[in-house]
Amino acid sequence: MKRAGACVALVLMAGTVLTGCARVPRLATHEELRVRHARGVAERVARAQAMRADGRVQLDGRATGRLPALIAQATLAGERGFRLRARWLLGAAADVVLRGDSLVVWVPAERLAFALAGAGETLGVGAPGEWVVRVIGATWSPPASAWQDAQREGGELRLAWRESGDSLALTLDAAGEPRLLTAWRDGRGVEVRYDEWRASEGVRWPHRVRLADHEGWLSCVLTFESASFPARAHADWLELRLPQDARRIGWDELREWLDLLGVGG
Length: 265
Description:
14-stranded mixed beta sheet
């Protein structure tokens, strides 16, 4: 009898363990995800005021063709803008600065300088400097109405809203971290994918970001191997002084130059 009782107890115990193992984790509520997301955004907004990161950048699409990955250093200075310095193993490849609504690109090997005021209209996004900072820091902040109308898609949550002429859609994972952001303006769309996240100096930060337009003109993959957050941004972080002998070109000339290289539209 004792053996029989022990066997029954063992079976019941095994059943309890298996049932516990098979238990489906509870999905976070909309409010729980909102709190997690807001906490993460607040941390990243604070750190994006002064951020420097080393990593890699790779371009693809009709504008450039598929290029080899470049060594890169990215700099964020909050709403003031963004800078990306890319280089080959043998030297500098390009220096790109976005400040507010202006874009400046310097290509040392070609002694070529490209400057574009009103870049937002040309690129299809409002205030592109600030927008790129939001892309890299994943600091998207949906309004209350977007949370009220949020839709479940498996274990993820999808929010949609309008902002400054843009239609935005954001997908969050179970931790409340962005996985996909899609933006549309005047029929043109841009997609941002956050493939991987890592902790940097105690803050969860995007490790790999994929940015691409819906027409296949250009895609960019940024991978950050390390990120640091100084106490403040230095005044010269976004200063790009072009040499006097730089050959300055406009948007139309840039397209012609890309065509000559065989990588244009």
